[in-house]
Amino acid sequence: MIQQIYPQVQHDYQFELNKDMHISAAHYIPHEDAGKCQKVHGHTYFVNVTIAGDELDDSGFLVNFASLKKLIHNRFDHSILNDHSDLFSEVDPNYFPTTEGVARAIWELVQSDLDTKDNKPKCVQVFVRETPTSYVVFRPKKKEGQE
Ligand SMILES: Nc1nc2c(c(=O)[nH]1)N=C([C@H](O)[C@H](O)COP(=O)(O)OP(=O)(O)OP(=O)(O)O)CN2
Ligand SMILES: [Zn+2]
């Protein structure tokens, strides 16, 4: 059973949902400063995505929990993160598959999917735990004029 404490995000939306998932994946960091992490190794990532909004869809969902799992877990589980060349780079540190990079990539995938929905939910936080002692939180910057 997944049980985690993760940071809360402030927002003014009426509904908030959270989806937890585990992802078993391998990666390496393609930079000499990464030390032992330059070698391929694996993690069981713990991921939490937080979705918020004011409107429900025709099913009464803010977004279907199952569709979030399909979008993220099915894409990354039992994969080598570096192989996802549409998301990660071998040369641009901003797009290395670090915990930071994974958190941002997950946010981009989730928000792109949410943008197709009529009720316009927002992904307000992605939490990625890479090891028992290391995690990253990604929150999108508010755009100009956004509350
Ligand atoms: N800011 C970041 N630092 C590190 C990342 C990262 O993604 N972002 N990644 C790594 C390695 O990939 C490694 O898998 C995780 O490192 P670390 O937390 O140091 O793992 P340990 O189990 O060795 O840590 P303990 O302190 O012994 O628990 C490195 N840095
Ligand atoms: Zn690692």
Set down the secondary structure blueprint.
Blueprint: E1 15-27, E2 41-53, H1 65-76, E3 79-80, H2 99-114, E4 122-131, E5 134-138
Parallel strand pairs: 1-3
Antiparallel strand pairs: 1-2, 2-4, 4-5
The chain binds the ligand Nc1nc2c(c(=O)[nH]1)N=C([C@H](O)[C@H](O)COP(=O)(O)OP(=O)(O)OP(=O)(O)O)CN2 and zinc ion.
In short:
This protein has 147 residues and is of the alpha+beta class. It has helices at 65-76, 99-114, and strands at residues 15-27, 41-53, 79-80, 122-131, 134-138. Strands 3-1-2-4-5 form a 5-stranded mixed β-sheet.
Ions, cofactors, ligands: which are bound? the ligand Nc1nc2c(c(=O)[nH]1)N=C([C@H](O)[C@H](O)COP(=O)(O)OP(=O)(O)OP(=O)(O)O)CN2, zinc ion
How does the major sheet shape up?
5 strands, mixed
Low-confidence stretches: none
Q: What is the CATH fold-level name?
A: Tetrahydropterin Synthase, Chain A
Helix count? 2
Give the name of the CATH architecture: 2-Layer Sandwich
Per DSSP, what share of the residues sits in E-state strands of 2 or more residues? 25-35%
Query: What is the total number of structural domains?
Result: 1
**How does the overall form come out from the CA principal axes?**
globular
Radius of gyration equals 16 Å
Approximate helicity band = 10-25%
How many beta strands in the DSSP annotation? 5
Strand order of the largest sheet: 3-1-2-4-5
In CATH, the homologous superfamily goes by the name: 6-pyruvoyl tetrahydropterin synthase/QueD
What is the N-to-C succession of helices and strands? EEHEHEE
Alpha-carbon distance between the termini?
36 Å
Based on secondary structure, the structural category is alpha+beta
InterPro entries: 6-PTP_synth/QueD, 6-PTP_synth/QueD_sf
Protein name: 6-carboxy-5,6,7,8-tetrahydropterin synthase
GO molecular function, one term: metal ion binding
Cofactor: Zn(2+)
